[in-house]
Design brief:
5 helices; 4-stranded antiparallel sheet; 4 strands; alpha+beta; Alpha-Beta Plaits; about 15% strand; single chain; about 40% helix
């Protein structure tokens, strides 16, 4: 549509089923490349991606013509198939239901990219559960504990 301008950025977060630490260093970069291809295929711009063993952060410049739920479903479905087809885990791989999607202003791009790309250092100080709850709180997201990811590190 003429004279329509958007500039939206989303930080996506999700984890393997049961928060299992299944994403291995040996193939995490290939997974990140694979997911980047999915994101770009749908017209989004990959700004940062980082897969930890038990969760993933994806930061995108958002294409408003493709819904976030459809993007996340596409990433999860396609990467499940890719991981299982290539037998990258000993057991069947699945992503856990649900995800977090958080918007950020352009002024925060560098901060969010830096945060995502420094996940290993960040997680030396705090686990994923604490990190995710802080993200929810920082973004003023009302949530019910029973609908959060399953956390086994309490």
């Amino acid at each position: 549509m003429a004279n329509t301008y958007t500039q939206l950025y989303f930080h996506l977060v999700f984890s393997p089923k049961n928060r299992a630490a299944l994403i291995r260093k040996e193939w995490k970069i290939e997974l990140e490349k694979y997911i980047t291809g999915i994101v770009q295929k749908h017209g989004h711009k990959m700004l940062a991606i980082y897969a930890m063993p038990d969760h993933i952060h994806i930061f995108i410049g958002y294409n408003v013509n493709h819904l976030i739920p459809d993007l996340v479903e596409g990433i999860k479905t396609s990467s499940n198939v890719w991981i299982n087809k290539n037998r990258l885990t000993k057991s069947h791989f699945e992503w856990q239901k649900g995800y977090g999607a958080f918007s950020h202003p352009r002024s925060n791009l560098d901060r969010v990219v830096n945060y995502i790309l420094n996940q290993e250092e960040h997680h030396k100080k705090k686990n994923f559960r604490k990190e995710y709850l802080e993200i929810l709180k920082t973004n003023d997201v009302d949530y019910k504990s029973e609908y959060l990811f399953t956390f086994f590190d309490d």
